[in-house]
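Retro notes (design track)

What went well: tokenization of the new backbones is finally stable.
What didn't: we kept losing track of which sequence belonged to which structure.
Fix going forward: every design gets posted as structure first, then sequence, in one message. First example under the new rule, 367 residues:
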């Protein structure tokens, strides 16, 4: 189990096969980046790349850069355009070449400052630059703080599909500064609650008590992120390389959700919005086919509504498009559907009993 210490900052410490690292969750952290790196990692490099995007860079890069400079480290800022399109091989090449041109070498380290796009892209660049250099993740969205910055999955998209090229490269430190969330647009802030509600559904029923305090949620962000990181860290510790099946439970809501995201042609729904619909469908299937009670199901769906996440599907996204997108998904292993269901809030399992017809009915019920 990860070691969790609540406070400000809170810490979650992961212990994996070959890596140990700490996730710090608190306020006012990024201005102390260099001190925290010194305190919590073995990194002693004097050169670093700070990779960020065009939205986050102007807001937060200077704080990180000046902290590094004050500690005698020379930082090189590399900014990529904001948006999923930057998760490409071309962009990894571009970032890596800029690092080489700046004179960075295998003793340097990389700081990934931004949401999941920057974390996945820059994490991958760190994994392959001179066969691997240390990476510090500074996630600045709810999604990246509660999910993508922890666990070591890095990578990019190709025209054939999402996340098809990548590497496991665990960070040496994660700094989740909840102050950065204050500049996040409401739609992106709310989107992150799809993954939070998913975490509660599969692992921690009591987390819903906190989620339900929406009016004051911004006062509880340190606790909220900490509890989610603790869940993600526990799952990653149990199944670091997605071989035992535990990590697959994080796909709750994602089979149908990914189908809806793809059928909407990406761009129509944010990932978390499509997953919200997938969570509604998977929750209803859990009530119909497993032991989840009606009331538990309603509670999960109400939580999604509370954060303005969609729970009803519009008519112009067809069942056929969703089903055919789902069949291209890697979770449809050799035609067999391995679908994550709940038997109660806080406990998930993989079922082989869900048929294509069940899925179609669940999608129809979303309308
Ligand atoms: N590696 C993993 O385990 C994992 C897990 C989940 C998701 N992901 C990946 O994460 C990506 C999605 O991440 P995301 O939702 O963070 O998207 P994102 O990185 O695109 O960020 C969303 C938007 O918010 C902006 N932004 C970021 N932080 C901001 C801030 N503090 N203030 C104002 N604007 C800010 C960004 O510039 C962007 O426009 C996807 O590519 C997904 O595949 C990876
Ligand atoms: Zn997701």
């Amino acid at each position: 189990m990860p070691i969790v210490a609540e406070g400000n900052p809170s810490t979650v410490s992961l212990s994996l096969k070959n890596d140990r690292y700490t996730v710090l969750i608190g306020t006012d952290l990024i201005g102390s980046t260099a001190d925290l790196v010194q305190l919590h990692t073995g990194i002693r490099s004097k050169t670093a790349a700070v990779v960020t995007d065009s939205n986050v860079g102007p807001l937060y890069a200077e704080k990180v850069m000046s902290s590094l400079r004050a500690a005698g480290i020379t930082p090189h800022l590399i900014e990529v355009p904001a948006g999923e399109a930057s998760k490409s091989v071309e962009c990894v090449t571009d970032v890596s070449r800029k690092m080489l041109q700046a004179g960075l070498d295998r003793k340097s380290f990389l700081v990934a400052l931004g949401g999941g796009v920057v974390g996945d892209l820059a994490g991958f660049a760190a994994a392959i630059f001179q066969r691997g250099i240390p990476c510090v993740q500074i996630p600045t969205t709810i999604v990246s703080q509660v999910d993508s910055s922890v666990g070591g999955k890095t990578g990019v998209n190709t025209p054939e599909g999402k996340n098809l090229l990548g590497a496991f490269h665990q960070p040496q430190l994660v700094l989740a500064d909840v102050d950065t969330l204050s500049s996040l647009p409401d739609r992106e802030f709310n989107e992150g609650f799809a993954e939070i509600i998913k975490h509660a559904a599969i692992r921690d029923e009591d987390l819903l008590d906190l989620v339900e305090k929406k009016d004051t949620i911004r006062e509880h962000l340190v606790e909220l992120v900490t509890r989610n990181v603790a869940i993600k860290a526990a799952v990653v510790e149990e199944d670091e390389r997605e071989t035992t099946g535990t990590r697959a439970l994080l796909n709750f809501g994602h089979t149908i959700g990914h189908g809806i995201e793809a059928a909407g042609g990406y761009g129509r729904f944010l990932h978390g919005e499509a997953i919200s619909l997938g969570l509604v469908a998977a929750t209803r299937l859990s009530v119909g086919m497993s032991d989840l009670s009606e009331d538990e199901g309603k509670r999960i769906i109400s939580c999604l509504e509370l954060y303005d996440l969609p729970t009803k599907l519009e008519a112009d996204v067809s069942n056929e498009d969703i089903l055919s997108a789902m069949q291209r998904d890697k979770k449809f292993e050799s035609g067999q559907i391995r679908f994550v269901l709940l038997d109660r809030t806080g406990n998930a399992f993989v079922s082989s009993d869900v048929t294509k017809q069940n899925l179609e009915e669940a999608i129809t019920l979303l309308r």
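Added context from the reviewer: The pocket of nicotinamide-adenine-dinucleotide (ligand 1) is lined by residues 53, 55-56, 59, 82-84, 87, 114-118, 120, 140-141, 143-144, 147-148, 151, 153, 163, 180, 183-184, 188 (CB under 6 Å).
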